[in-house]
Amino acid sequence: MAGLSIWHVAIFAIVVILLFGTSKLKNLGKDVGGAVKDFKKSIKEDEVAANALNEPKTLEHQTHASEKHSTAKTHSG
């Protein structure tokens, strides 16, 4: 049979623990967990920034922008 049984996985885990030791595996787990946490945080920040850029402008925003533009023309002339 080509599949892995529970015994194959158990023997592999024992060999890995014997080769690297539990302290190195614990540190590796912390490092990988921190990397995943930072990755998720950066993805969330990128989504918030993208949503802010893609927000449709409301009529109120357009009115304030045109008022600022028109007052700037009258004061400069």
Characterization of this structure:
- With 77 residues, the protein is mainly α.
- The protein has one domain (14-76).
- It has two helices and no strands.
- The N and C termini lie far apart (87 Å).
- It holds the Pfam family TatA_B_E.
- Keywords: Cell membrane, Membrane, Protein transport, Translocation, Transmembrane, Transmembrane helix, Transport.
Quick structural summary:
The chain is 87% helix and 0% strand. The protein is mainly α and 77 residues long.
Layout of strands and helices, then pairs:
Layout: H1 6-54, H2 59-76
Q: What characteristics describe this protein?
A:
87% helix; 77 residues; mainly alpha
